[in-house]
């Protein structure tokens, strides 16, 4: 298998990180991979907020969990009230990906950028995980305002990055392969 296919297949969601910060050069390559994703109408309707301040990342975790603990969805509530849970897994870098609201397909474009970044990270042996649960933090409009996201952009997802702390048991969740049909 070639390197790209290897990175795609070997990438796993990493949920345990070293405290050491990742190399700036690697981070630049990962962000560049995001920026090279395809976009509808070539809009490139994204913005990346790179947070490398431990207290700020912890604060985003704490605030997200506060809201999660009030969720009607049982598993989300349980995560919210569990003091052992850190929804960013104490990763040293958190990237918030925001999309320009008036673009043709900003959520799809940003998702393509996130996937490119996950694969780029794996190719550099850097761990990553796509974070949907930080969306709870995005409900706090006053907090989002402090992130310096450009006017007319909205935050969609987070992406944690860091060196993998625990590479044991990194088997891929079983994939259902019965999802293809051909019309020839
Ligand atoms: C839109 C989206 C949101 C996700 N949110 C989270 C999250 O908040 N926390 C988390 O640990 N994993 C999150 N994941 C990662 C998935 O749980 C993971 O991709 C899936 O279990 C398959 O495992 P793999 O990434 O190792 O192949 C998210 C993935 C996607 C695509």
UniProtKB/TrEMBL annotation:
Keywords: NAD. Residues 8-163 form the Nitroreductase domain. One of its GO terms (biological process) is 2,4,6-trinitrotoluene catabolic process. Pfam families: Nitroreductase. One of its GO terms (cellular component) is cytosol. The keyword NAD applies. It comes from the Bacteria. GO terms for molecular function: oxidoreductase activity, acting on other nitrogenous compounds as donors, with NAD or NADP as acceptor. InterPro entries: Nitroreductase, Nitroreductase-like, Nitroreductase/BluB. PANTHER family: NADPH NITROREDUCTASE, OXYGEN-INSENSITIVE NAD(P)H NITROREDUCTASE. This is Nitroreductase. It comes from Clostridium pasteurianum DSM 525 = ATCC 6013.
